[in-house]
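Records of this kind hold a single protein each, on a pair of labelled lines. With that in mind, the following record should read easily:
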Amino acid sequence: MNVELIADFNDLCGECPIWDSASASLYWTDCAGSRFYHYNPRNGQAAILRTGVEVNGFRFNRSGGFVVSNSSGVWLWPSPDAELVPVVSQVDGRPCRLNDCAADPAGRLLTGSLFYHPAHDYPLGQLISIGTNGVARVLDEGYHLSNGIAFSPDGSLLYATDSVSRRIYEYDYDLRSGTASNRRVRVQVPRDQGVPDGLRVDTSGFLWSAQWYGSCVVRYDPEGTEERRIPVPAKQTSCVTFGGPDLTTLYITTAGLSEPMPVMPPGYDAVEGQFGGPLYRIEVEIQGLPDLPADIVL
């Protein structure tokens, strides 16, 4: 299998690729460079749609536009040429400094806060749910650096990544109430590998995790065992999603700005090498789950 470079804007931190089945095209963000992109695979054209807007995570909103998570909270974004409309800026009296996100089958937006600082003490973050009415509540506590979030094919299991602890957690998820319970560790990434970042799930319930510092995407079986590893020519492999007409094309974002942290694997070189920046894709011949839309109405 060959990983193909399809767009290179030298992203500082490319993240959150989202496939739009309606237009058969891809959107993604450079959250550190404050740029938002679109890629049309029919003509191979990639374009910057907006600059100057921080988008750490996003999903389509059923009523139109997007729902965005960033370091100031959750926002509605009617279109890339419009301004952000605030939804939530704090929950339980704490600021919503948010990273990646995902929508559940009922249209709620799940996201996670992070206050991680490698050189100082920091409060632990939260796993947060934004209801379809825009009201936020805390599902769980204790995240160092919240990252990729995803659901099992039937929606009964929730997966949430803590990059600093090198864990992908699994919860029982009640779709009717939107509650998560019985947290356990689905994947514990060894210290000598990269750290888990963006996350997706395929139709067989296997997890696909981008490995920051790891130059790869790893597929894990339902027991949390590594089933395969796809090398990526970028040290900071950040996120994945499934696209294409059959959702068998894996799109991969990467980050070109080196971000050394104490959780780097032993011997990792944070000064030299190809850290990332381009958008890649690879045909994996395994069908992934679609990126579900949120359904938030104020």
Q: What stands out?
A: The chain has a mean pLDDT of 97. The radius of gyration is 17 Å. The chain has no helices and 26 strands.
